[in-house]
């Protein structure tokens, strides 16, 4: 009996413990579920507010963001040509290796300016296109050095209050027109719409790109920031597409297989140095079958070497080295005549298939996307075009202007991209631009020439403006879907950029800035006031801004815009959608106060 009682007692004690433990477990599970519900509801409440207005009820939305208006002071007059990420005042902080100090080096947050960049004394509203291609106001780009050094080469000359651009250049003393005529004879595709996009490295005052506009070819003129020449500023003042940049240690901010043609006219880039790394970058951005044009040393060295401060043997060796490097990169010498040599990138992969592991330069591995180009270091390897894309080659692309409204094959590479979405986007922007025109009559007039779409997807806004006397710099976010290749396949131009930083251009270079939902997408990373201050820096006086944004942000944008001296009006969108509004603003023309000079 004793053993039985002991066993019964033990069982009773165990049972008495199980019941409270079970109840406690149920209580804890319920409490955890309750806490989880609170956590996720709070998480959604806070995170959704940062991205877009959250719908709280069927009939009520989150109150619009409001910011108190603050009047921003004027920067001192020595900031009139301030380029924050390519600032010569900061060059000494960076090394001289391959001129890397001229690349983008943006100031830290504590050094960012919160002031309005003033125009130079005597600034005037720019001369209208197309007259601007041949002349501009001296006071708008008051650089005497370039006039003194380059007037004998017919880059430009000063006449009274204006700079005149006669269309000359170091390698085209008979005028840029005659130079391009010869080039067209060598490359027939320049005449029939086969070649549409080009890049000019070391562009001078962009006379080559300016001449090509009349021939249906859209050129990105590229040159670094410098203390004296201001090549890119002259180009943009003339109404010719241009951007600050240099081939140095990082990739150019363009996708692979994009340009139909690249050009260097005595651009002083050391193509044969550093294992041909600069030529490898040209190879990356040229589409299969695209052309690279070189004029100047060492081309035609037999007749030119005496004027180059060199020897015929040295120039012959340099030319042979360029030819050998280009052959190793699957280029072939296409044409050569007088001072112009033309190479063509392989139209297919047959040449690359013959390369072996011991070949130099080697093929790039798969560890780096060939389209990634925002602060991506250059590598001495060959980017082989993807065999999955059969229509990248120049010969396979539709001719201009047919290619503008055709969905490119590369649309499939964009996350969520397809031909149906492309066609919808194309149609949508035609409707939107028609509505914009009713709100901003200056659109389509000679008051607007240089345009930027600050966050495009497929270049739809630019395509809808194609009949207007404008060109558009299409900007694709370095943090968003990589769709810039599609923009180039359409025959348009653009660049990667992060709007948390300053853009690669001089002040007062665009007549119209446009964005669609930029703060909805980027406000969690980029502070609104700095983006708007940067827009003010690059916008010309009397220039316009079209802001298409969530209603949540519009009032805050208008408040900051008032502090930077913009006149803004709020409008409905083309379909009167309540959650989205338009803000159309104009920058005032003002001059630095006497005390700021």
TrEMBL record:
KW Protein transport (keyword) present: no
Subcellular location: Endomembrane system; Membrane
Topology term for the membrane: Single-pass type II membrane protein
Keywords: Glycoprotein, Membrane, Methyltransferase, Signal-anchor, Transferase, Transmembrane, Transmembrane helix
EC number: 2.1.1.-
GO biological process, one term: methylation
Family: Belongs to the methyltransferase superfamily.
Protein name: Methyltransferase
Organism of derivation: Musa acuminata subsp. malaccensis (Wild banana)
């Amino acid at each position: 009996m004793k053993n039985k009682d002991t066993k019964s007692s033990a069982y009773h004690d165990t049972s008495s413990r199980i019941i409270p433990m079970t109840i406690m477990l149920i209580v804890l599970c319920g409490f955890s579920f309750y806490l989880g519900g609170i956590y996720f509801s709070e998480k959604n409440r806070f995170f959704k507010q940062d991205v877009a207005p959250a719908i709280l009820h069927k009939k009520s939305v989150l109150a619009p963001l409001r910011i108190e208006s603050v009047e921003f002071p004027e920067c001192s007059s020595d900031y009139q040509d301030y380029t924050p990420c390519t600032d010569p005042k900061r060059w000494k902080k960076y090394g001289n290796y391959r001129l890397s100090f001229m690349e983008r080096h943006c100031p830290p947050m504590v050094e960012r300016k919160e002031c309005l960049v003033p125009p130079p004394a005597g600034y005037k509203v720019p001369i209208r296109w197309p007259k601007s291609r041949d002349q501009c106001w001296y006071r708008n780009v008051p650089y005497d050095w370039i006039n003194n050094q380059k007037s004998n080469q017919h880059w430009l000359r000063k006449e009274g209050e204006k700079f005149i651009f006669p269309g000359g250049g170091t390698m085209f003393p008979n005028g840029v027109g005659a130079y391009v005529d010869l080039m067209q004879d060598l490359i027939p595709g320049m005449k029939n719409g086969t070649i549409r996009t080009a890049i000019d490295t070391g562009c001078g005052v962009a006379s080559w790109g300016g001449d090509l506009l009349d021939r249906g070819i859209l050129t990105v003129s590229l040159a670094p920031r410098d203390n004296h020449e201001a090549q890119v500023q002259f180009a943009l003042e003339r109404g010719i597409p241009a951007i600050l940049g240099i081939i140095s240690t990082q990739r150019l901010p363009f996708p692979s297989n994009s340009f139909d043609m690249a050009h260097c006219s005595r651009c002083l880039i050391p193509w044969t140095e550093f294992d041909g790394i600069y030529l490898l970058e040209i190879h990356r951005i040229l589409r299969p079958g695209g052309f690279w044009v070189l004029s100047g040393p060492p081309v035609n060295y037999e007749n030119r070497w005496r004027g180059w401060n060199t020897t015929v043997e040295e120039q012959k060796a340099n030319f042979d080295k360029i030819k050998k490097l280009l052959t190793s990169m699957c280029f072939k010498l296409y044409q050569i005549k007088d001072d112009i040599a033309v190479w063509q990138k392989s139209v297919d992969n047959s040449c690359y298939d013959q390369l072996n592991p011991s070949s130099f330069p080697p093929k790039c591995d798969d560890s780096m996307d060939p389209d990634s180009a925002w602060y991506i270091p250059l590598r001495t390897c060959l980017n082989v075009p993807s065999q999955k894309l059969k229509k990248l080659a120049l010969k396979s692309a539709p001719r201009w202007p047919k290619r503008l409204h055709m969905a490119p094959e590369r649309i499939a590479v964009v996350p969520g991209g397809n031909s149906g979405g492309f066609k919808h986007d194309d149609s949508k922007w035609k409707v939107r631009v028609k509505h914009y025109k009713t709100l901003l009559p200056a659109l389509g007039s000679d008051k607007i020439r240089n345009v930027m779409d600050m966050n495009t997807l497929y270049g739809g806004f630019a395509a809808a403006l194609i009949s207007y006397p404008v060109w558009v710099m299409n900007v694709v976010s370095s943090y968003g879907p990589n769709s810039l290749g599609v923009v180039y396949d359409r025959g348009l131009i653009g660049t990667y950029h992060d709007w948390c930083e300053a853009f690669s251009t001089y002040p007062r270079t665009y007549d119209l800035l446009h964005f669609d939902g930029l703060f909805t997408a980027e406000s969690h990373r980029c502070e609104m006031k700095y983006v708007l201050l940067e827009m003010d820096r690059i916008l010309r006086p009397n220039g316009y801004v079209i802001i298409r944004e969530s209603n949540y942000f519009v009032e805050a944008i208008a408040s900051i815009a008032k502090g930077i001296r913009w006149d803004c009006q709020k409008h409905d969108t083309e379909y009167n959608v309540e959650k989205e509004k338009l803000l159309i603003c104009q920058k005032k023309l003002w001059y630095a106060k006497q005390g700021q000079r």
